[in-house]
Design a protein that fits this description.
Length: 86
């Protein structure tokens, strides 16, 4: 399905790509197994909504992706030296 969504995006058939990806995003939200995939999927949906000029939906998906990404970051990943870790 993801390949088909990419094809729809290339063909500028954004509504069809969104229709394919929204159910996948909803299922992924209920699973906490792969946060990176969830962030990527939410960001991709945000991009598709923006291309459809549905900016409220785009902002919502972007904020959800950003929030999830921020939740997955640990202080160790941001520290350049062990003394900077809290």
């Amino acid at each position: 399905m993801l390949g088909l969504a990419l094809l729809y995006k290339k063909q500028k058939r954004y509504a069809q790509a969104i229709a394919l990806l929204r159910p996948i995003a909803a299922k992924q939200q209920n699973r906490s197994t792969d946060s990176a995939f969830q962030v990527l999927l939410l960001h991709y949906l945000s991009d598709l909504y923006a291309r459809e000029e549905e900016y409220t939906e785009a902002e919502d998906y972007f904020q959800r992706a950003l929030t999830l990404w921020q939740q997955t970051q640990s202080p160790v990943q941001h520290a350049s030296h062990p003394s900077q870790v809290e």
